[in-house]
Amino acid sequence: MSPMGYERIERRLDVPGGQVWSLEVRRAGPASGEPSGLPLVLLHGGPGAPHHYLRPLEALAGERPVFFYDQLGCGESERPDDMSLWTVERAVDELKAVRAALGLERFHLAGQSWGTALAVRYAATVLDPGVASLVLSGPFLDSARWQADQRAHLAALPPEIQQVVADAEASGEFESEAYQEAMMAFYARHVCRLDPWPECLDEAFGKMGLDVYLTMWGPSEFTCTGLLKDADFTGLLQNIQVPVLWTCGRHDEATPETTAWYRSLLPGSEMHVFEEASHSHHLEKADEYLSVVADFLRRHDEAGATSAAGAVRRD
User: Fold this and answer.
1) Which of 119, 194, 273, 300 is most buried by its number of CB atoms within 10 A?
2) Cα–Cα distance measured from residue 214 to residue 144, given in angstroms and rounded to the nearest whole number
3) Would residue 81 show up in a list of annotated catalytic residues for this protein?
4) pTM value?
C-alpha cells in the first residue's frame, strides 16, 4: 500500500516479446506540481523475482516519482512460453522500451541483485545520457565470485544440509523436500533474516517467474546451471560515467568483501554496509536503507529543483 497522499498509476507497456506491467508512485494533489527530484526506476532481481519485495521503496516517492516494472515472464507481466526470450540482451532491450514508453528524459536507475547486472549492462552499453546515477544493492556482477561466496556460506551450514545439497547436485534431482528445506535454511541466513518474512517478500516468491529463473540461473541461489553461469559484467564498469552507490548486508549473498572489490573497480563510487542484514537489507534495515538511498539521490539530482513534469515527458 502506498503512503497517504500518493497516487499509483499502473500501465501496460509493449516490450520485445510481449507486454510488461509497470507502476508509477508519485505525490497526489497539489503536491504533485511542486518541485521534485529526478524519477527513480527500479530493477528487481531474480531473474524472475517480481517487484513486490521492493515495495518499501515507494516511500521515496515523497521526493520524486518512483517507477517499478515486472520484467517479462514474472509477476504481473505477461509470461510467454518462449524460452529463447530469457537473455541478458533482451532484458536490456526491454529496459530501453520501458524507458521510452514512460517518456523518461532524466532519471536515476536502481537495481537489486540480478537487477544490478541489468543496470550496469544498460548504463555501460546503451550509454543513455538520461541516466543520472546508479544504486546497486546486493550486487551480482561476476558469477564466479557469486558462486564462490555462496559455497563459502554453504560450508558454514550444518554438515547434514551440505550433504543434502551435494546429493542433489550429484543426481540432478532438486525437487525433494530435503533439498527445499536446505535451500530455505540457507535463505534464512543470507536472503532474508527476518522471521517471519515480510508479506511483500512472500508475495514476490509466490509470483516468481520460475521459467526465467531456471533458464537464466538455476535451481537455487547456490546452484547455478543456467545461461548466467559464466557471466562477468565487471569489465563494463570502466564505461560507467555516473555516480554509483553500492549497498550490501553484512551477511549478504553479495558479501561486503566482493562488493568492496566491485567498488575498487569504480573509483569515486560510494558503499554502505548494513549490519545484521543480508541480501534483503532494504527490508531488514528499511529506515536506514531509505535514508542512505534518499541522501545519495538528493545529492545527485540535477542542480536546483527539477519539476517532475520536466523529468518525465507527458505526451
Assistant:
1) 119
2) 18
3) no
4) 0.94
